[in-house]
């Protein structure tokens, strides 16, 4: 099979229809039922006020179109495939990175893949997941203590291997998936009000990490965008929907359930604001995002204005999943109201078609449409979900082979009208 170790996926409804968005979730958990967490939950007068006073920077004739210094094409690479090295998710930068019992090691696989990406024109912008928790010395009470120096060296080495082939990365720092068994994920209890030292520790970890990469010239030049936390609203909303997780924020629950608005305004948005402020103060030259599960693209103008205010970012990363994207062009056209550049770090078939997302043959017609049309809606990059959809290892880890989706990426990369 083309994708030797296909991940599970999670999903929810967003935007204007029953289109699902997914997050790759490498566990054996059952996919939860989709939830529409955005629709009809913001008071109309509040939305109207936001629109009147908060959107003057948008360009109604086409939105913000500042260029990002990245390739239009690429993939959501995640990490070197663990089918051959058995490192597991979010352990690839630990001692496993150079463990010679793996054949090839993640270190070697990065070089194999980077060379293949460059040779086959699979895009000079790849989404690479760090998950900072795997680099940390951790205290169960106070959280982050420091980073393992050797693990930072491993990251430097991996980035240098991408840089060798002229590839820039969208570096994902924090991630978690509700109900997963993947190791070294973000601990959301740090935000429940009962663990202030742990929350502060995460901010210090981001500071220390950014100091490290900003001082390394190769790292700094290879990183096109820093994703501070992957799909934070989706993942943290799901965690705090459990009343037992609310900590000091019990006011967010009543007899009807847990309020999405309360979670976002009392817990998540303050956290992301502190995260962004820490990052910007530490390493202001990087571009920062907090990736969105797709909610920012909606033809509901009032709702979109509210949602944009929830994202303290330099650039929007809006994940796109649909089996019929050509039927939702009004939704994609809503990007004209964005006040910042945007790209999609995850792009593919609907979550209801997970067999399609990770199958390079089935996904090809849909991925081709995304690649050929989203630049007209202002997308600065379209990263296909995921690397295993673009190439496989039928002949073994040393000899990757293009899929039909990989060929589609190649064609668009080489087209004269795509940077």
CATH architecture group name: Alpha-Beta Barrel
Describe the sheet with the most strands. Answer: 5 strands, parallel
Q: Structural class given helices, strands, pairing?
A: alpha/beta
Number of domains: 1
CATH topology, by name, is TIM Barrel
Q: Please report the total strand number as a whole number.
A: 17
Shape: globular
Q: Give the CATH class.
A: Alpha Beta
Q: Please, how many helices?
A: 14
Rg computed from alpha carbons, rounded to a whole number of angstroms: 20 Å
Strand content range: 15-25%
Mean pLDDT: 87
Q: Give helix % range.
A: 25-40%
End-to-end gap: 32 Å
Poorly predicted tracts of residues: 1-41, 47-62
Find the CATH superfamily: Glycosidases
């Amino acid at each position: 099979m083309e994708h030797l170790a296909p991940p599970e996926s999670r999903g929810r409804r967003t935007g204007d229809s029953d289109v699902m968005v997914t997050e790759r979730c490498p566990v054996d958990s059952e996919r939860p039922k989709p939830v529409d967490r955005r629709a009809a939950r913001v008071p109309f007068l509040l939305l109207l006020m936001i629109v009147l006073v908060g959107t003057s920077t948008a360009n109604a004739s086409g939105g913000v179109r500042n260029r990002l210094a990245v390739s239009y094409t690429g993939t959501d690479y995640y990490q070197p495939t663990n089918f051959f090295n058995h490192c597991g998710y979010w352990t690839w930068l630990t001692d496993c990175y150079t463990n010679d019992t793996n054949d090839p090691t993640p270190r070697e696989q990065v070089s194999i893949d980077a060379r293949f990406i460059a040779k086959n024109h699979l895009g000079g912008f790849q989404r690479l997941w760090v998950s900072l928790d795997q680099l940390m010395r951790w205290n169960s009470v106070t959280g982050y203590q420091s980073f393992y120096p050797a693990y930072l060296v491993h990251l430097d080495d991996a980035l240098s291997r991408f840089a060798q082939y002229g590839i820039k990365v969208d570096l994902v720092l924090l991630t978690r998936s509700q109900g997963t068994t993947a190791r070294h994920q973000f601990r959301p209890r740090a935000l429940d009000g009962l663990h202030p030292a742990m929350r502060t520790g995460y901010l210090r970890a981001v500071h220390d990490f950014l100091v490290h990469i900003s001082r390394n010239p190769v790292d700094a030049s290879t990183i096109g965008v820093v994703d501070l936390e992957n799909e934070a609203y989706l993942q943290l909303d799901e965690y705090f929907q459990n009343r037992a997780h609310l900590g000091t924020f019990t006011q967010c629950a009543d007899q009807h359930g847990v309020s999405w608005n309360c979670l976002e305004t009392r817990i998540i948005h303050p956290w992301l604001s502190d995260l962004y402020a820490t990052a910007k103060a530490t390493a202001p030259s990087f571009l920062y995002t907090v990736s969105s599960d797709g909610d920012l693209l909606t033809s509901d103008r009032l709702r979109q204005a509210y949602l944009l205010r929830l994202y303290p970012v330099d650039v929007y990363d809006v994940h796109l999943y649909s089996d019929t994207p050509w039927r939702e062009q009004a939704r994609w056209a809503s990007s004209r109201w964005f006040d910042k550049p945007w790209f999609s770090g995850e792009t593919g078939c609907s979550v209801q078609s997970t067999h399609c997302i990770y199958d390079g043959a089935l996904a090809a017609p849909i991925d081709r449409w995304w690649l050929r049309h989203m630049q007209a809606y202002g997308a600065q990059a379209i990263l296909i979900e995921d690397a295993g959809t673009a190439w496989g290892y039928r002949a073994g880890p040393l000899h990757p082979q293009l899929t039909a989706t990989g060929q589609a990426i190649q064609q668009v990369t080489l087209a004269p009208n795509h940077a």
